[in-house]
Every structure is written in C-alpha cells, then in structure tokens.
TrEMBL record:
Designated name of the protein: Putative transcriptional regulator
Pfam assignment, any one: HTH_26
Organism the protein comes from: Natranaerovirga pectinivora
MF (Gene Ontology): DNA binding
InterPro entries cross-referenced by the UniProt entry: Cro/C1-type_HTH (IPR001387), Lambda_DNA-bd_dom_sf (IPR010982)
Domain HTH cro/C1-type as annotated: residue spans: 5-67
C-alpha cells in the first residue's frame, strides 16, 4: 500500500495546502485529493514540484507498506 505523507511534512514546516498549491503551482483540488490519499495516480512532475517546495525527498512524502490483500503472483 502506498500512502502519501505530504500532510505530515506541511505540519512539520507550519505550512498548509493552500501555500503548497501556490508554491508548487499545482491546482488546489488536485493537491487536496493527493494530500488526503483520495487519488489513484500522481504525475512525477507534481512529486518533483512538491519536493522542491518542501525541500524534501520523495521518501519524505511517500510511504510504501505491505498490503496483505496484494499478491504479486497468482
């Protein structure tokens, strides 16, 4: 399972989604869905812009953990 951890980075830096939307030039509705894990895909360019705005790496905003319902080979 992949979880987006942008909200945690914003809280650490005392910033909000509105600020990130303006700084990263990503539409607020798109960013809001991403921050709240309500999307199934994201453009690499958005990840890059978010990381530049927050001065972080993708590892800081994306967490991968095992999904017990996911099987690689069936």
């Amino acid at each position: 399972m992949i979880e987006i951890k942008i909200k945690e980075q914003l809280e650490k830096q005392n910033k909000n989604i509105q600020w990130l939307s303006l700084e990263a030039k990503i539409p607020y509705p798109t960013l809001h869905k991403l921050v709240n894990n309500k999307t199934e895909s994201v453009k690499f360019g958005f990840i890059e812009r978010i990381c530049l705005a927050l001065d972080c790496t993708p590892n800081d905003i994306i967490q991968v953990s095992p999904d017990p319902q996911l099987t690689l080979f069936e």
